[in-house]
Every structure is written in structure tokens, then in C-alpha cells.
Amino acid sequence: MPAFPEIDAIRFEGPDSRNPLAFRYYDADEVIEGRTMRDHLRFSVVYWHTLRNPLSDPFGVGTAVRPWDDGSESVENAQNRARVAFEFFEKLGAPYYAFHDRDIAPEGATLGESNKNLDAVAKVLKEEQQRSGVKLLWGTANLFGNRRYMHGAATSCNAEVYAYAAAQVKKAMELTLELGGEGYTFWGGREGYQCLWNTDLKRELDHLGRFLHMAVDYAKEIGFTGQFYIEPKPKEPTKHQYDSDAAACLNFLRQYDLMDHFKLNLETNHATLAGHTMQHELEVTGSVGALGSIDANTGDLLLGWDTDQFPTDIYLTTQCMHAILKYGGLKTGGVNFDAKVRRESFEPIDLFYAHVGGMDAFARGLKIAAAIRAEGRLQSIVDQRYASWSDDLGADIEAGKHNFASLEKLMLEKGEAAANTSGRQEMIENLINEYL
């Protein structure tokens, strides 16, 4: 029996539609810059928020009404939930999904029991993938929920916890491979510290580097060729997490000789918690060829925690898609809706409203970003701003033909640098508003 009997497949009806269960901008087959919207955006639904989040908060129990879920931690309930998940994916028209291991199957009393539970649910997931054509964008392991990870997982002060985490990731990687996952993500929710007085920071970072090298080695051993990702976040649940922002992650990857094996999965709400914009994180990552995937959400700037709201701000999605197009688009990653409906939006249909709105917001951002690029006015302003670097002096500096002494000689002869030109920030902001 269907879990969403009143919902038909979501269709594209165009900008004039007033149907809240139709796409106004996301036309999956529309071609933009040589690729379909489907291929540009590679939308993915997350299992943890969409299928597992009870919509609780620190001040109240969950409000979510999920008629298909009997509330138990049984394998049977998990298998039924998997079938419901694919009904949702199909009706929404999402080509991908993503999960943590503990999202899809209950954790057992032992590692062996947990693995057995995973295998039982994975069988259903595989059947549903084959039936529906929906694919796994990436898998990951929950190395933060169980109390054993109170001190971290790959950075734990307890060597046996470290070993358990390695075993859990090993199984999650095997499962991701079995399900044809196109990537695997590491998010260090508790890989950080609360108090530096009791923390051997260097040792913990060395252990984390060793852990990720073991993952790289095991991927080669089992033939997993999917992309590895690290997802930055500065804090929450720990006071400081080692993957605090894109620059910190990239520095870590360079330090431990992992740059060839990892790209970043960036999230808007994590960027703002780090004191950055998502556009900043995308530019920092894209500029070194490390942009892999994004978690599509937003935070409430009046609140200081990870609210994981659905993205509806067209300015934000335009910034995201402009940067993504600039750096060659998403290949193995996608636009992954790591977002949850609000606690007051508790009915099953609200899951559709939220995802339809997010998909339309990113589709519109894609169209606007492509129009900005096609017209070229913005790029012309940027080119003019850096024009001196195309002249003889700038070109020679970039080519390594100058040193301090030669530049001093040149400026002693000239006496003063050429006058600066205006940055035209307000004009540029007005220009962007023209497209919105």
C-alpha cells in the first residue's frame, strides 16, 4: 500500500503554475550550458532528515507524523521504511539519495549484529534501486551518535573506539560499493575538542590522517572507485572540529598527503557557522580543484546553530550555481538536500513541499547563473579590474620573471604606482539584481 496515496509524480508546469506540488523552474530535461538540469543538479534526498528525523528539539518531543513507521527499531520496520523512501524519491523525481549506516538499519548490541541488520536492509535498498533507477549519491558512517564516540571516533583517546570506528567505516564502504554509490563522505562530527587542557591535538590529527589513509587503502583493495569527500563544519556538537572550514580541510589534506584522494562536500549552514558565506567556501575549494559536492540547505542567521532549513533564497542558489558552473560543474557529487522540515511542518505532505521548493530554488539559481555567464557583463568587469595583470609587467610577474630587486628598480624609476580604478561593488550588486 502506498505511503503517499494522495501524491502523484511531481511534474514541471512552468513559472505560471500555482500548484504547490509542481515544479515551476526545474525542468529536468532542459539543456543549459550543454547539460540537462538533471545532470547539472544531480539532486539527492537524505535519508536521515527525510525518513528518520522525528522533528524533536531540546525542549520538546518529536512532532513528525509518519504513518508508515511503527516506531520500533526492528529490521522489518527499517525494510518497510526503505520501500517508503523509494516511493518518495520516485514521486519527487530525485535521481539520487544519501545515507548514514545507522539511518537505514538499527544498531545492534554488537558490531556483528549491526552488520547483519545492515545487510538485511541493504537487500531491500538494492531491489528498490534496480526497480526504480534511483541511485546512491554517497554513503557514510554515523561516527557521532553512539555514546562510544563521546571523545571522537578517528580522534578518540580510546584506541578500541578508534578500531571500532574503522570497522564501522569498512562495512559502510562495502555497503556503498554494493549499492553502486558514487562517493563516500567523512564528516567529523566529534573529531575535535571541548577542552584543550586534556587534548593531545597533534596526536589526534595524526590518528585522523592515518585513519583516512586506511580508508584509501581499503577502497583500492575492494575496488571502490567512488569519490571520497570531507565535509567541513566548525563546531556543534564539539566546541571545535578539526574540519572547521574549507581552508582547514584543504590544509589538513595537504599536510597528510591526501589531496589526490579527497574532495570537499560543502554545506551552506556549516559555512555560515564558520563565519563564511557558501560562495566563499565554494570559491576557496573550486580554486584548487577540490569541489566535489554540496549539501543544499541554509541556516537562520538570527540563530547560532545548525538549523538545516530548506534553501529558498534565490540569491543564495544563484551564488552557488555560478561558482559551481565556474569550476566545471558537479561530476560525482550532487545537490544533496541535507535539510529538514520545520517542527511545525509535521505532515508527510510537507516533505514534498519542502523538496519541491528547494529543487525549484536551485533550478532557478542555475538558470540565472547561466544567464549571467552567457551575457558576460560580470566577467567583463572582473577582467577590466585585473587588466594590469595582462600587461607586460603583470604578465612578467606571474611568469616568475621578476624578483624584489627588479621590482624595486622599476618602482624607483616610476616613483609611484598607477592610479587604482573603482571596484564598482554597488554597480555589480545592481547588475546581479537585474537577473533576479
UniProtKB/TrEMBL annotation:
Record bears the keyword Cytoplasm: yes
Positions of Mg(2+) 2 binding: 267, 270, 306, 308
Known cofactor(s): Mg(2+)
Domain Xylose isomerase-like TIM barrel stretches: 124-280
Keywords on record: Carbohydrate metabolism, Cytoplasm, Isomerase, Magnesium, Metal-binding, Xylose metabolism
Subcellular location, record wording: Cytoplasm
Transmembrane annotation, as ranges: none
Pfam families: AP_endonuc_2
GO molecular function, one term: magnesium ion binding
Residues the record lists as binding Mg(2+) 1: 231, 267, 295, 338
Subunit: Homotetramer.
UniProt similarity note: Belongs to the xylose isomerase family.
The protein, known as: Xylose isomerase
Annotated source species: Aeoliella straminimaris
Gene giving rise to this polypeptide: xylA
